[in-house]
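can u do me a favor
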């Protein structure tokens, strides 16, 4: 039974949810008084927009993927006592200190990634913030726990620092365990962890995961900004460095102020929302603000998904893995037909606590600014934590330009001192170690050791260190130095030590976990942008969305005039900077000739002044034969379409004008093939070697 529940959520929690969950915290262990906070919402399955908290995506399981629900698991947890206490390497025999592993294995050597730009790192963090945010336990009165002062406190799990540590002179790094979360049915059981944001890749990082946040961010059809769409709105209550309080920003995600490259990317997406909303509104002055906001949000979230699957994941996973997990977007004119209501869309614990943290290895020392004058400025990352000053005075634009013009580091065991010594440092040597935190977090969440995950991912169980496919012999020796056996290795450490897959930027085990997770986020999301579900986009609009590139969005939002086609790769002869004008410009206020099939999106056609067939009442204002050659009579009325890509449409929706290339092609909806089956993680062989406590194979 879980002894270790806590009554406080992190301070980012919204009051009503906080209240509900704090009730769980106090009553979780007392079935008689237990009130489950997870009330099944009633859903309108034909509502065409996502709910703000992610509920009702899966109509039969409306809580799947909702904000403030537990992470799902690929494998049962590896708790020493089966329910709650972190993994050790045998009864009462500790694993090496996470700090020690960080010191020995996650050293500061800087190997640049072959192709990846530093923007690829930043976009990864942005995606990460859209789909996951753990909650930490709190102390009495909601205070932050100091687990170095009170090592034995409930929910404390400090990281010991050795006397001979080459940097820190304190003997302990603070580590607070994640808040225990109830499962959806509130049954008692083993310790789970809470995701405070919507699990779906749905733009929650831009728009928030709850209505209160969204209200604070919205300004009619637009997102609030300071000074003419320039900067994010201020948040006087933001988590920020002391001196920066008055300059800190508000966005859909509370971590926005963490460092300026993140602030800049958040700003870019806010500006982009406002650009799309403005185009739509200008074309349709009569469309109400709510309609413009929701339609824009649906399109912008779809663009975020498209860039993630089409551009970013491709760089991270490479073509083979993309194909293996069916992650590549379909070509124009086709829907993805693999939505499967049986697939759980939730974020998996091992993905969040370890695999997707591979991105910490990509972080370079500096945040680079490239001014329009061509001057380049480098800022040591740790000098910028929680200080948004750099984003002001054109900083967002020059930081974005700097990010795609500078390299990220390679995914390997090395992690920069900026985050292994100086993370959130406010005075010399009082910083944190992110690599050690990742390792400790894995143990806190009950994540199995690396070797077990290899088996889960259909790789061989390595019976000794020599059997590991690492990126160097030195790597093997490093692991041997800190771990007694090959069965002790923490998942984060083992995962980033593997050689990267061909054409990708991540090792095989993490490619497996990241691949399966993004497949679940695709097949289990009824609103997935290219899915052929009842809330789908009209195919013509989907085709426009698929023209989206991160480069074009940066052209539209940061004032640059030329940019590499693939901004997740460094500029090179095979990825030269090209003129912003040569990128396809998605026509997002697309005028669709409605033929009655697109009923749920019929309002869409109001965009650009295109009037749905059923409501076309305007008198023919063209007394001459219409461009289709039919005389315009009282019952056959022509409608003039304004804006680019417009034309003259007749009553059947055929384009009769010269500005569009004939009737819009309709693609037959492909017949649904039976879902091939979510790739199962093979059942672990029930042999002693998988007992993380005692290793029989040793
Ligand atoms: C300057 C860049 C970054 C900084 C300073 C940073 C910092 C942090 C910190 C402090 C945590 C919380 C650790 C814990 O207490 O367990 C965290 C969590 C995490 N980070 Fe990063 N990170 C950065 C970039 C990235 C990137 C590029 C990725 C992935 C591509 C990433 C993925 C994650 C994930 C998956 C988590 C766990 C999230 C959760 O469930 O709460 N981070 N990061
Ligand atoms: Ca989300």
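np, heres the sequence
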């Amino acid at each position: 039974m879980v002894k270790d529940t806590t009554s406080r959520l992190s301070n980012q929690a919204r009051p009503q949810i906080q209240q509900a969950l704090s009730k769980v915290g106090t009553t979780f262990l007392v079935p008689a008084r237990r009130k489950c906070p997870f009330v099944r919402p009633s859903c309108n399955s034909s509502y065409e927009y996502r709910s703000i908290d992610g509920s009702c995506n899966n109509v039969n399981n409306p809580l799947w993927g909702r904000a403030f629900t537990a992470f799902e698991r690929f494998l049962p947890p590896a708790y020493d006592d089966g329910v709650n206490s972190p993994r050790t390497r045998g009864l009462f025999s500790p694993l090496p200190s996470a700090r020690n592993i960080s010191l020995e294995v996650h050293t500061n050597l800087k190997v640049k990634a072959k192709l990846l730009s530093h923007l690829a790192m930043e976009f990864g963090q942005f995606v990460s913030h859209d789909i996951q945010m753990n909650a930490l336990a709190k102390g009495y009165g909601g205070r932050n726990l100091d687990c170095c002062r009170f090592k034995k406190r409930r929910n404390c799990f400090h990281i010991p620092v050795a006397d001979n540590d080459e940097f820190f002179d304190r003997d302990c790094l603070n580590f607070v365990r994640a808040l225990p979360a109830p499962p959806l049915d509130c049954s008692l059981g083993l310790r789970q962890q809470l995701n405070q944001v919507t699990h779906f890749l749905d733009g929650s990082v831009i728009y928030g995961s709850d209505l209160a946040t969204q209200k604070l961010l919205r300004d009619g059809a637009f997102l609030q900004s300071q000074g003419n769409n320039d900067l994010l709105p201020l948040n006087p209550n933001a988590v920020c460095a002391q001196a920066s309080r008055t300059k800190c920003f508000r966005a859909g995600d509370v971590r926005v102020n963490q460092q300026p490259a993140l602030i800049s990317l958040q700003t870019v997406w806010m500006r982009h929302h406002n650009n799309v909303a403005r185009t739509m509104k200008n074309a349709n002055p009569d469309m109400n603000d709510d309609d413009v906001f929701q339609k824009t949000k649906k399109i912008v979230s779809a663009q975020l998904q498209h860039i993630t699957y089409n551009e970013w994941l491709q760089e991270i996973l490479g073509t083979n893995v993309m194909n293996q997990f069916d992650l590549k977007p379909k070509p124009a004119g086709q829907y993805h037909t693999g939505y499967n209501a049986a697939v759980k869309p939730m974020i998996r614990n091992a993905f969040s606590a370890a695999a997707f943290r591979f991105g910490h290895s990509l972080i370079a020392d500096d945040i680079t600014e490239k001014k329009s004058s061509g001057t380049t400025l480098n800022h040591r990352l740790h000098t910028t934590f929680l200080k948004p000053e750099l984003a002001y005075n054109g900083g967002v634009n020059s930081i974005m330009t700097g990010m795609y013009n500078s390299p990220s580091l390679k995914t390997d065991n090395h992690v920069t001192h900026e985050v292994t010594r100086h993370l959130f440092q406010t005075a010399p040597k009082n910083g944190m170690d992110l690599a050690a935190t990742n390792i400790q977090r894995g143990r806190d969440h009950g994540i199995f050791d690396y070797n077990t995950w290899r088996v889960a991912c259909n790789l061989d169980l390595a019976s000794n260190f020599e059997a590991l496919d690492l990126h160097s012999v030195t790597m093997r020796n490093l692991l041997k130095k800190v771990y007694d056996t090959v069965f002790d290795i923490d998942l984060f450490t083992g995962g980033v030590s593997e050689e990267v897959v061909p054409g990708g930027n991540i090792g095989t085990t993490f490619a497996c976990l990241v691949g399966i997770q993004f497949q679940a986020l695709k097949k289990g999301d009824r609103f997935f942008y290219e899915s052929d579900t009842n809330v789908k986009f009209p195919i013509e609009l989907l085709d426009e969305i698929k023209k989206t590139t991160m480069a074009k969005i940066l052209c539209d939002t940061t004032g640059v005039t030329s940019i590499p086609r693939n901004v997740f790769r460094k500029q090179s002869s095979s990825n030269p900077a090209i003129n912003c004008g040569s990128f396809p410009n998605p026509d997002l206020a697309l005028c669709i000739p409605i033929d009655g099939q697109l009923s749920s999106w019929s309002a869409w056609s109001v965009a650009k002044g295109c009037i749905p067939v059923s409501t076309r009442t305007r008198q023919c204002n063209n007394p001459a034969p219409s461009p289709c050659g039919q005389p315009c009579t009282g019952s056959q009325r022509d409608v003039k379409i304004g804006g680019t890509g417009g034309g003259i449409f007749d009553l059947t929706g055929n384009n009769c004008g010269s500005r569009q290339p004939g009737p819009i092609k309709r693609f037959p909806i492909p017949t649904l093939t039976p879902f091939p089956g979510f790739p199962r993680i093979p059942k672990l062989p029930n042999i002693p070697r998988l007992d993380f406590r005692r290793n029989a194979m040793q």
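The chain is about 30% helix and 5% strand. hope that helps!!
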